[in-house]
Design goal:
- By secondary structure, the protein is an alpha+beta fold.
- The chain is built from 4 helices and 14 strands.
- The chain has helices at about 15-25, 45-60, 125-135, 190-195; strands at about 30-35, 35-40, 70, 75-80, 85, 90-95, 100-105, 105-110, 115-120, 140-145, 150-160, 165-170, 175, 185-190.
- It has a 6-stranded mixed β-sheet with strand order 3-6-9-10-11-12. The chain has a 4-stranded mixed β-sheet with strand order 5-4-8-7, with no helix packed on it. Strands 1-2 form a two-stranded antiparallel ribbon.
- The longest helix has 16 residues, at about 45-60.
- The radius of gyration is 17 Å and the shape is globular.
Amino acid sequence: MSAAPVERGHGEQPLIAEADRIMERLPGRRVEIIGGQILVTPSPDVAHSRALKKVTGPLTAAGLDDLETEIHQGVGVWLPSGPEDYAIPDLCVVESDIDEYLIANNSYDPAVFRLVLEVTSSNWKTDLQTKVSAYAEARIPVYVIVDRKHQRLHVLTDPAENDYTTHRIHAPGEIVTLPESIGAKVSLDVAEILEAGQPTRTP
C-alpha cells in the first residue's frame, strides 16, 4: 500500500470547509461528504452505543485489536467517489499501520480497512443505500449493517464497482460468522445485537 498524506488548504476544499462549519455549529453530529453531498447524522442514542458494544466484544475477543489489526470507532475513510468525499463508519477493523495512510481531513486510505460497520439511526436509508455504493466503490471488503429499523443484520462482501455482489440478510435467531478475511473467525448473535440496539422506553 502506498498512500501518501495530502496537505490541502480549505480554500481548495469548499465542501470540507462547510462540513467543518456545520460541526462547529452542531457539536456531536457526524458530518460526512458522499457523492459530493454533505450528510449530517444526529447524535447517537444510548441504544446505538449498546449495539456497538455487542459487536465490539466478539471482535476484540477474536484478537482483532492486537498486532496486525485494530478496532476503532469514528475513524474516517477517504472515498474515491468525489474529490472531497469521506465517510465516518461507526466501527471499523483496520490494518495496524493505519497512521501511515492518512490522506486528508483525518481520513485514511480505504485500502487499510478490512471491515466497516454501521448501526442505523433515523437516517437509516443512508446506511442501507448511499453507503453501500460508497464503501463498495472504495473496495472495502466487508460491510456490516446493524439495521435497527427492520431488525436485520446485513453482511455485504465482494465489492465490485459501486455495489457488493454478495449481500446476506440475517434475522434474529441466527448466528452469523463473518468472513475470515477480516483477520479472525468471528461469530455474531443477531438477536443479542438487535435487542441491545432497541431503545428502552419508560412510561
